[in-house]
Batch of 2 targets.
Target 1
Amino acid sequence: MAERPPAVTLGVPRLVLGGRLLFENLRLHLEAGRWTCLLGPSGVGKTTLLRLLAGLVPGGLVVTDDGRPMDGRLALMAQQDLLLPWLTVRENVLLGFRLRGQRRRRGAALVARAEDLLARVGLAGRGDDLPAALSGGMRQRVALARTLMEDRPVVLMDEPFSALDAVTRHRLQDLAAALLRDRTVLLVTHSPREALRLAHRVLVLGGRPARLREVPVPAGEPPRDPASRELLEREAVLLRELVASVTRGEEVPCASSAPS
Amino acid sequence: MRVLRPLLTLAGLLALWQTLVWATGVPRYILPAPLDVARRLLRDADLLAAHGLVTLGEILLGLLLGTLLGVAAAAGLAAFRPLRRWLEPVLVASQAIPVFALAPLLVLWLGYGMASKVAMAVLIIFFPVTAAFFEGLRRTDPAWLELARVMNARPLAVLRELRVPAALPALVGGLRVAAAVAPIGAVIGEWVGASRGLGFLMLHANARLQVDLVFAALFLLAVLALALYRAVDRITARIVYWQKETLTPTG
């Protein structure tokens, strides 16, 4: 990575979606070069916050601590792998360059880097396969390689591991934590355990309009041991709080959130 | 086995037909037996082949032009918003006109030759191809488009690398429909006014109570249509090489 990752602050003065006041005077701060995990029940607006940061929905103000704009400095990883089925694995890893028309310049060097990244996510030699030939976990690893290929200082991830089985998820979490160390990362997740394993900071989004609350994380650098006593205790506490906040009616699941 | 089973079904149906003709003693000029038709097919092979070639030419040319026009129209609609606003409703409404009703006009304008039949086929093919491809182009997965946006993709590259390939399966569906209806267009055109082609031959033979020739021409037309459909199916399967068939075709 060529540049130092910036700290990023998103300010949302007021956002109404579907007739419902989602955020008011909300401020989300991502520390430079660290992982921030955003937790919260479904429908509370986690993904919307991520999309505001990415500039995919209007209404947010994004500021970086180095004063340069965010545009062109972030990469996105979603729950679906978003691989294009007609491109090979290698071509998918290189998708950004293809879409920016940068394939001809430094073509060989790019391919070499794509191969290197595929090897690092454990997919050496699979570059010529079509995505359909891969398992769900392998596809998500290709998506991770594509994200790394972009080599951007800020990485936004929207539940990238939630569709995977427990073992694959665990291994992919370790891999992502290792490969995206020192970047400014926002990971949206509904899993308290995942947040407590991977984050330097955990923020819980809740209420209406939604507010952010920081909760303490276990000691030590991520990725943390999921079996550590501290992590398990914090997970239990966090889970209890989330359940309580939902039953208090602070958040309602998507389906019943129609405005009155 | 895959080819054998439907062939056996066909043989059974033909045997039933033959038995029916023998048992009832229907005159040959009303309903000829399959054997009569087969005999006619062999005796007039040259005649049938000559007319069949004409019809095949019309179908292929119509399919080619109709596909090109349909793809171009869909791409235009997808690329230019004003075109969508001004043209799309008209295009949809135009489908209320039965194309067959236009056949006499086409013959009047374009003459008894090949042109009016090709035009007829083009008219029939154009809409399914346009509609299918345009539908595919407008339904690109929004998540892909957002990924492209975050990657700072160039608009033209999004069209070429994302929208068009993503729309190809839909286009292929349209092409299969086109291959199935193209022979109808050509034959209708020949019925209305022609001096060559299988449609003309059938009409002519029908008037002279040469019903076995009608059936022979019909048989050849069906073979042509089937071969065309298979060919288009093969070619289009290569276009969308990444799509796996999830239903086994037969059996």
Target 2
Amino acid sequence: MPDSSLLDQVKDFANRPNPYPVYAKLRQNPVSRQDDGTAEGTWVAATHGTIARLLQDPRVSSDTLPPADRPRTGNPLTDLIVKPLKDWMMDRHRVFIFRDPPDHDALRSAVMHQFSCARVQAMRARSDALVTDLLEEKREAREIDAVDDLAYPLPVTVICELFGVPREDEPKFHGWATQLATALEPDSLSNTEIRAKNSRTFDAIGGYMGDLIREKRRHPRDDMLSGLANHATPAGVKMGDYDLIATSILMLVAGHETTVNLITNGLLTLLRHPDELERLRQDPTRAPRLIEELLRYEPPVQFRTRRTLSAIDIAGVTVPEGADLVLLLAAGNRDESVFPDPDRFDPDRTGTRHLGFGGSLHYCVGAPLARFEAEAALTALARRLKAPRLIADPPPYRQGAALRGPEHLRVAIDGIA
Amino acid sequence: MAALERAVIVGAGLAGLRGAEALREAGFSGSLTIVGAEPHFPYDRPPLSKHVLAGAIPAESTALPHGLDADVDWQLGTPAAGLDRRAGTVRLADGRALPYDRLLIATGTRARPWPNPHEGRLAGVFTLRGRDDAAALRRALAAGPRRVLVIGGGFIGCEVASLCRKLDLPVTLVDPGPTPLARVLGRTIGAFIGAIHAGHGVDLRCGTEIEWLEGAGGRLVRAHCVGGGRIEADIAVVALGAVRNTEWLDGAGLSVDPGGVDCDGAGHVLDAEGQSDPQIAAAGDVARFPHPLYDGRRVALEHWSHAVAQAAHAGRLLAGAPPDAAYGAMPTFWSTQGDLVVKSAGLTQGADAVVIAQGNPATGRFIALYGRAGRCIAAVSVDSARWLPAHAELVAAGAPFPPAGAATDRPKGVAILDPGFS
């Protein structure tokens, strides 16, 4: 049996707790072709410089999804008429992380317009209160699961409140979000079973969002979905219903699946670096720089995929037209030419050119939310957990290689202050 | 060559300052004198036509931070009046002579004045080049004029006109050419940008020339156009480009004319016989040099980043620690015109074709790529600067034009346009 490619090792679940040695091997060739079973292979960019450059290269497209192809039902009416129509609508109204300018720019600008400073600041205050409530519930506990007890419910509540999803509907999103987030895992795109599941899930969540949007039109409230459904941007962008459904799904899934990892990776890292935990406990103003270092050191999104629209000469190789490209953000974050002693967790680093939120036009829309949610959670955990100890190190991980983080993070405590 | 004890820098702008820093960084520890015509320490010019005019910051907040020690002799407010290379001295306007072993010429440019000096002195008539100009114009704009007339559709003219619209002031921009920015970007791209400004309410009058400025009681009241027509305006901003400050070099035996001081590839100035003077370098707006990216064509560039890079190069050269390669940084500039950001890499001059490589001029966001004889020579971004570096690479590599292959937001089969240089 031939050696598995380095990309296979990235995907290999056994490497989930510590993929960084594999990333270091990949960095030896800034851009390399990795076998993935296809004739073309997949090209991986693993150094900070090549990733940053490719993020703003117009020959690099985010339109990586294969054409929609929902499963056949056996019902001729559905298969011949409804399915092609639905597939066509799906392809025309993809979520904007999978779209290029100019469509991407218009959709994103509409979201950014609703993502007002006042809204963000209001949610910031709200997230402090949410953290207090969530920890209060565990007051008597001698063990917590940082994922289920805090890292998951906090961002979910924030994104749902921001968008105006009724509280009682929040649980529905749990399964939907987990399923749809697999679209960021490269293998899911070629796996027909996962794709079928994803399209069923998209239909379910899309139906729900469609109803909610109609409700927001009838009874507008002060939330982002009401804003997007009822108002154009100053430049005149107003989304049609299908784009609005796709965009709100994107925001809700992103809100469910990313910050949870930032908070959990954050607590895990602090428990592995007790001196930093103690410093944060004594000085909560260290939180912002600590979170930037976390975004470098253990980014929730480890890589993103792209496709080349034409051939690109970079770092001594030619990536051909139409190639699948993996931008290994987490590897670029450990590039020693940019971050000296890269494998050391050091919140006092100066310069924060990390790729934890990606970069260029697809830079994380929710970055401000992620930052203050992580700040609220980590400062409260540092201050209030009495004698926290990891019960399992490494903890069990979730499946995803791209969206990487612990499934549970059990921590023994002597109580909550 | 003479000892290396006394360095004089003529010009206390961006290039002079960066040149001085580079001299020191390269190990020069002798006496260092910086001569400036204005009474101010070095300041940054780009904000003058933007943040200062908008009232966001006062003009005096533009002082440039610097890394020079206290051991610098600043001669501010005393312009240089002559150069005697045989004696090795710079003569100041007050008659003093400063001896030098090494000299950096960085006297830059001044605003081209309104041709009729009497009209140019009317209250309400401004030029915009220095800090004091910007402070005065800001005061005038803040007073709420009836209408501002901008004479000249170059970058400064477009910046001032668009800024007036942001301040909600009525503004008329006149230019004798067919479009704004036609000289630098060509008529085709100039027309796109002109349409954006017109859309924001700038009263754009191309093909119009001002014949004379009429005053009453010493104040501007209106402008008269060639061939008839009047523009009622109580403020006129004369934005007719810049004049290089080379007059003080008359009689110094250097190869110099209103187009600049000639330099060799390394950065030393050339004498009238074409020989390099190893004691003297020039940098910034005033230096004309053979650019390696453009087949050695002699250019003088009025760009901020160029002043920084070329002065750093010249400083090391004079300190005896010359850089390995001839100076040849990619020319770049930016211009903020209201909410519109125009950035450029490369030189458009001589282009025989242009394509919209990304975006769409109708939306106000696009990349124009200029070609000459089948090679990419310049890229200009309008509100889409993130894509400029990738196109600048094509320019640096002299990649084939038009660009091959697909890119995001690029129409299939890009149309090759006449750039409209005449």
